[in-house]
Amino acid sequence: MKKIIALLVLAAWSDAAFAQATKAKTKTPSAKASAKKTTATKPKIAKQNPCPSLVVDIDAGTINELTPEATMDEIKQTLPCFTGDTPEGSDFNCGGGVFYLSKDVFFYINLDAIEIRKKYTGKFVKGGEEVRLLGIGKEALYELMGEPDEDSETDGDNMVNIYTTSSGSIRVVVANGKVAEVSLHAQEPDMIEVCE
Q1: 185 burial class (0-12, 13-18, 19+ CB within 10 angstroms)?
Q2: Is 7 exposed, middle or buried (0-12, 13-18, 19+ CB in 10 A)?
Q3: Phi and psi dihedrals of 83, rounded to 5?
Q4: C-alpha distances in Å from residue 19, one per residue of 8, 14, 15, 23, 57
Q5: In angstroms, rounded to a whole number, what is the distance separating the alpha carbons of residues 146 and 84?
Q6: Whole-model pTM?
Q7: I need a surface site. Which of 1, 108, 113, 142 has the fewest CB within 10 A?
Q8: Separation of alpha carbons 69 and 60, rounded Å
Q9: What is the dihedral of CA 74, 79, 80, 86, to 10 degrees?
C-alpha cells in the first residue's frame, strides 16, 4: 500500500511539474520582456548628418569652398545635413538643387547659383576677416563692397547690387533699406539668372 501511495504522489508531482513546465513555455511574456521586444523592433529614427559651420567667402564667391558650379554630389558630400533636394533638370525648384531649409541656404544646380536668405546664421568672410552682410544698411553695404558692377535701384530703400567675385558674381538684394538676401552665381554680373 505504501508503494501505491508513493506511486500516486510521484505521479501527481510529475503531472504538476509537467503542467508547470508547459505553462512556463506558453506563458505570455512579462511587461518587461514585452517592452524589450517592442523596443528592439521599433524603427530607429535616423540621426541627421552633422553640418559643419557655414562660411560664405565673399571674395571667392563660395560657401564652404563650394562654388556655384558644384555638383549635387559635391554639395551633399561637403554639407551632408541637407533637408531636401530636387533632381537636376527638374521642372521644380528652378531646375533642381540641394536645399538647407534650417540654414536658409539653397543651391540651384541648373542656374549655377547659391541663395543665402535672411535667416542664415553662418558667417561671411571678406579679405580673410569675418564681416556682417545680411541685415546691414545701404551705407554699410557700400563701405564693405564698394561700387557695384551692376545695380538696379527700384526706389530709395530697395535695390539689387551685383559685384564680381573670383568664381563669378555676388548679387545683394536690399529691401526696406537693409540687405535681405545674397546669392552667389557662376556667371558674370550682366549674365546671371535668378530663381523666381
Answers
A1: buried
A2: exposed
A3: -105, -10
A4: 16, 8, 6, 6, 77
A5: 35
A6: 0.72
A7: 1
A8: 13
A9: -60
